[in-house]
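Title: Prediction job returns without error message
Component: structure pipeline
Severity: low
Priority: P3
Assignee: unassigned

Description:
Job completed but the reporter wants confirmation the result is attached to the right record. Sequence as submitted:
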Amino acid sequence: MIEHFASRPQPRTLLGELVEGGKRVWWENRPPSEEDLQAHLEGRRLLGLVPDKVVHLDLDRTGLKDLRPLVEVLNALQIPAYAGPGNTRGSKVWIFLEEPQEDLEALARGLARMAKLLLGEEHAVEGYPNGQHGLFLPLFGHLNGQPRPLYEAWSKSPVSLPFRPRYASPEAIRRLVRAVPFLEVALQRRPSGPRHEAAMAVLNVAHRAGVLEEAKALLGSEAVFARWELADTRTLEDWREELSRLTEAASSSDYPNKRGIPFLKEVGLDPSPIAKLLGEEPREWPKPKPLEELEAPLPPWKRGLLPPAMEDLANALAGQLLVEPTAPAVAMLAAVSAVLAHRKLAVAPEPANAGWEETPVLWAVLVGPPGSGKTPIIREAAKPLWAIEQTLAEENRLAQEEYEQELLAWQAAKKGERGEKPTPPVPRRLVIGDATWEKLASILEGNPAVLAVVDELKGLLLSWRREDRAQGRAFFLSAYHGTPHVVDRVGRGTTYLPRPQVALLGGVQVGPWHQVVRGGLGKGEDADGLLQRFAPVVLDPLPPVKEPPPVPEETLWGYRDLVMRLWAEEVPTMVSPSPEAYRLWKEWRFETLQEQRNPELPEAWRGYLSKRMGLTARLAGILSALWGEPGVISERTMARAIFLVKAILEPHAKRAWRVGEVGDISPAIRLAKRLKEGKVVRFTRREVYRNEWGGITTSEEAGRALWLLEKAGWVVYDPEARAYLVNPRIREVGRED
């Protein structure tokens, strides 16, 4: 019989005898003998040893009948156990193993913890083996007619001699011990939500942990039934049948979106014990941001920044096209900048830095979906310049005809009487619809500046990313700053452009803009600051109306007359700030330097800040000319320029760059609504586009939407599960605090 308890020889023997009120115990330094075993079975003297093949639970305060919750779990999992009364008080449980196990003590501790949870904290439970502590064998007094009986827990039948125990599977015991944290979590409190949903979440995680059946048995215990107050709606047997159905669902691949640890926390349970078991820290979910907060808010246009002729047209176009006046206003500024650059206006922003001059040219890009009004805004902003271009074309034609007549006359004259050969006229240009750098370079050989009007900037912007267009990219950088540029052409020699200037005005849809921004704001070859030189304006369409107001003709003529005056009348060739304006400039410069040196700002934005003062100087020079100031930038005009940069253009830049990084935000919003319904807690990107959640049909579109939702704290990617987890707090979004 001793071989069922220990596999190794016992160098010492534990002995004891019953006395009034308890027992007397001692050790003898010798192995146990057959006489010791016979005395034990006859009830004359207790025999004990240090076990290594049995788990023993000693329950001093628990009667045999009170073991039922523990026995039910063991029976449900077909773990054979034996139970009997203690030698002096309480009861004992035995689980026999065929071979010794290295982790037997840990298994004993785990089963003791489980027994205490199932029976209640008032029950004392000791697990053995426990170091070198010995324990007394069962069946004391079995041969004297007054035995301490031992029962099969599964059949309640008493055992007899010779004793041949049924062995338990060590792996079954390990799985049960591994499932104990699930019982700990379940017994914390009654879940705040539907109890069957909480049980489903526990079983889902148990399935991941490989202890699904064990967790089912523990959830079906009397302890959980009472703790969750389930008797108000069902019997214990009903509950166990329900758990069987839930267990089947937890193990099924037909239900891929299964709630787990986040949901347990949502219903008021602390999943830390389970998370620790799985090697996961319990996730502290942040409060998700409303998706709208990821888009920098777009401010309204402030009246008084531009002369009335420009603002009146900006407001009229905005009313007809159902957009904010900002887009028409900035488009007109870009157009006017080309006129002033052609008139050779320059800006010297710092009197103490004579070498710093800024050209007035602006690069404006309208970013918006099809039908948002980009084309009509660009058309109306550039219309006066096209009128000038038409006049120049007629003048060029007449000059060419005059040249050809002079050339014919020169050729007809005798060689000695010809004089100097006529020089062909240089065509004057102001605006061009072809933005290839080669064409622009040839035009700038004879013109100080031009406006490149490109209704769809997609081709130009994407061409700048091609290696074979590196020359074009370099040319545009020179043409923005007005720095010298050398053009080498095969067959045409070398052309030196001392001060090329190109103003840009165009539109682009969100998709191509996204392609450009991904490279231009990163750290690759495209991230040379070219993109930060653009002043992007995001077109946010306003709600539709049945009859948008027409654009009054007088506003069109008012803007045209202003441009014509700038073209024809005297314009200062150099403007610089007044002392009062310079004080504002220095304060703005200091603020910019502070922001630029903030290491927490994104690198792309710090790159923009390095160009902020140059943009401010350009706008100050343009506004000074528009308001008719005689070569001196007033304090009020400097304040206008700073406000225009800080309060108008920069919010648009932030929004445009955000749209550029993630593309169209609407798929993310539609997907967020789908997740907020609460039916999904775990999913893959493939599921999103395969099931067309939120109308998403491609992997790339799903990736962009999920990236944005991660930024907003709505989901988090679990690399081990290769799936996205839904933040259980998304239901708080939009809820009043």
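Comment from assignee: result matches the submitted record. Residues 438 and 490 are 12 Å apart (CA to CA).
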